[in-house]
Structure formats: structure tokens, C-alpha cells
Design brief:
Two copies of one chain form a homodimer.
Chain A lengths: L4 E4 L10 H7 L5 H4 L2 H22 L5 H15 L6 H10 L9 H10 L3 E6 L3 H11 L7 E4 L10 H11 L6 E5 L2 H10 L2 E5 L15 E3 L5 H5 L1
Parallel strand pairs in A: 1-2, 1-4, 2-3, 4-5, 5-6
Family (chains A, B): Belongs to the HAD-like hydrolase superfamily. S-2-haloalkanoic acid dehalogenase family.
Organism (chains A, B): Primorskyibacter sedentarius
EC number (chains A, B): 3.8.1.2
């Protein structure tokens, strides 16, 4: 089956989610953060994800912005930074201005030149996604920015992946789904999409019921899979 | 409302789950493991839990023994130990002979002396739980060992917490639920149990919709809450 539609996860896949803590650590007077920003960013991300999964199981959905704040609060507490409300505001503000990974604009341009529909499918709140898309300047390549807010549950619930067919009228096997999150690629593979895991960190493949069809170290060569 | 029934999570709460990797690291000729066993144990546990949550969301249940093996395979791969099938077997075998934390037998004895029903409610497979209960010698204090296998979904799905009322005929507010996993204590609090988080690691409280009612550093003083 020919791929007609390329769908991308947002955070960690198109946008560099560790950028927020790294950039804040580079500011003057942030020595305490500079010493721990990598662990802080990892804990922030881990708790953010855990909270999405736990809320999906118990049916207690909230916006991704809320779990982003909740994850940061846990991580700042863990690293003894919870007495610094100014730092909290700086880190949260940076989350609205995430950079795209460097290969992303040219990769999306190639897909559009090949006639593919391109979209984001993300846990992110519509306003968070709008901010990141605008800041990174990739909006011109995107036919849709789909947020789980429209279905009220986080990935990898099937209702989220259903949004692609609803929006584009395509069958699952016409969709190439791309995520840097192994569990998201696995969930999408189980749904029936052809999947690419952008394994930026060089991690082992997740031992879940479904495996990604392709594994790349970044997105540079993605158009060769899609076309 | 009087507490009639004390229900315990198993792994990390009554049984020391990091013991398997630590004991294996102490064996002669295991220098490579000795250098990384703490990170290996943490990654093993993290992936084991992630896989339970992801399978609960997608409805792809399997036994806890399977996700325990899956998590270990990921962690051994991550740490460059995936070329050592003998080590894999040693680590998995130790999982069937986990020690109870030192304060556990006397704590359970006090609860029984006070007339409380005591039970385990665990993600673990019945055979894994049977092995750990037998090895640790705490079976004499337990009125029931409840496994999620009977409902076919992992915590914190409500169906799991339902098992307590089904078994003991008690109302949620008669139950004191105890877990070292903050997310499990939070899920049980949302269900309606009175909850204790055994915060053995000194971690920040999870920013989830429900908070534990009590936080202890270990289980020594638990009977004072229950009685």
C-alpha cells in the first residue's frame, strides 16, 4: 500500500524537549541547575509521561499542560529546586518555544514535494502545539495539528490514533507514523500504521507486543521510507 | 470508619525488588554487573512498570512474569549485558526468592494480633507471589494473596481494587491500602481506600489527582495507623 499521509509525534520527535532545561541552565546565576539539568529534564519527562499513562488508565484526563507542570513540580522537588518559583516560570515558558530538530524543516519540505499529507498527532494541548509550531517555523509544511484534547485521553489509547483516519479519510496502512518514543511507535504499530521509531538516544527497542517497522537515528532519511 | 482490612502491594512494599540485582552483583566474576547493578535494577523496574501501564491502556494484558522478563531484557540490552543468558537466568531466578523488608513480619504480626484481615493485592502472577510469600515466610499472616490475573488488567485500573471488596465483603473506607509506589497509593486513594505511601526512597509525592493519606518511611509504625 502506498503511504499517503505522514504523521508525527511532536515532543521529542519534531521538537527538542530537553532544550528547555538546557537553555535555562545556560543563564547566568543558574549554577545549581547547571549541575543537574540533564537529570532534571529526564525526571521531568519521565513523570510527565507516567502521569499521562496513569490518567489514561484511571480515566482522569487533564490537559498535557497540566501534566507538564505536574511533572516539573515533581522533578524540581526531587532535585531540591522547589524553592525557586522564578526558575519554574522560566522552564515552563521555554516549553512554549521549543526548537525543531535541525533536520526537520528540510525533511518535511521533501515530503510535501512528494505530495504527502503531513500532520502532527500529539498529547500536547492545542495551544502548546500552536506555540511550538509557530516558534519553530514548520507550520507551512503541516496539513493538520491534531491534539488528544479532541478525544480526551492520552496515547497510546486507540481513540488517539483514530483521529488520523477521521481527519484524512485514509486507511491505517496508508499512514506512516513517526515517533521518537518507542512506546508510541509500538502503540501505533499495534493500531495498524506503518511506524518509524526515531531512536535519537540509541536506546534498546521496547519489549512491547508490537515493534516499529523502521528504526532511524534521526529523521534525515525519513522521506526515503515514505516515498 | 474503622479499618477492618489491611491490603499490601507486594513488590517494593513487602518484598525488596532491588535485591535480585544486588545479590547477583555480589557473586564472584560479576564485575561488569557490580559496576551497574543499581542502574540496571532501576531500569528493569521502570520498564516493568511502563509495560504494565501501556498494556493496561491498549488492552493487551499479559502476565507480570512476562513483563518482568521484558523489562529485564530491555535493561540488560541498555547496559550491554544482553550477551549473558546465564546472568539473565540468575536474575530471573532470584526474583522468585525475594526477601521481605526486615520490619514486615513483626508489623504483620501486630496487625493480626489486633484482629485485622491482611492481604496482598499485586500485579504479580499467582505463582510469583506464591514463591515470594513462601520464601519470605510471611504466609502465616496473610488471609489472601490477590493477583490481578483474576481480572486481566494491571494497576491502577479500578477492577484491580474491586478485588478487595469482592474477597472480603468490606466497604472501601474499611480498607487501609499500603504501597511503596506513589502512583499505586494515589490510584487506591482515588478508588476510596485510606492509603499509606511507604516512601522508602524519600521521593517527592506524585502530582496525581489523589494524594496518599499517610506517608511513612518504612512500615514499622503502620499498625498505629490501622488500629
Amino acid at each position: 500500500m502506498t503511504i499517503t499521509t505522514c504523521v508525527f509525534d511532536a515532543y521529542g520527535t519534531l521538537f527538542d524537549v530537553s532544550a528547555a532545561a538546557r537553555q535555562a541552565a545556560e543563564q547566568p546565576g543558574r549554577e545549581k541547575l547547571a549541575a543537574c539539568w540533564q537529570a532534571l529534564a529526564a525526571d521531568w519527562r519521565n513523570k510527565q509521561l507516567q502521569y499521562t499513562w496513569l490518567r489514561a488508565i484511571t480515566g482522569e484526563h487533564t490537559s498535557f499542560w497540566n501534566v507538564t507542570m505536574d511533572g516539573l513540580d515533581w522533578a524540581m522537588d526531587k532535585h531540591g529546586l522547589d524553592d525557586d518559583p522564578e526558575l519554574r516560570e522560566i522552564l515552563l515558558a521555554l516549553y512554549w518555544e521549543l526548537a525543531a530538530y535541525r533536520e526537520v524543516p528540510a525533511m518535511l519540505a521533501r515530503l510535501k514535494a512528494a505530495g504527502k499529507a503531513c500532520a502532527i498527532l500529539s498529547n500536547g494541548s492545542p495551544d502548546m502545539l500552536e506555540g511550538a509550531v509557530e516558534f519553530s517555523g514548520i507550520g507551512t509544511y503541516l496539513d493538520a495539528v491534531l491534539s488528544v484534547e479532541d478525544v480526551g485521553i492520552f496515547k497510546p489509547a486507540r481513540q488517539v490514533y483514530d483521529m488520523v483516519g477521521t481527519r484524512f479519510g485514509c486507511a491505517p496502512d496508508e499512514v506512516l507514523f513517526v515517533s521518537s518514543n518507542g512506546w508510541d511507535a509500538a502503540g501505533a504499530a499495534g493500531y495498524g500504521f506503518t511506524t518509524v521509531w526515531a531512536n535519537r538516544a540509541g536506546d534498546p527497542v521496547d519489549r512491547l507486543p508490537h515493534r516499529p517497522h523502521h528504526i532511524l537515528s534521526d529523521l534525515t532519511t525519513l522521506p526515503e521510507i515514505a516515498t
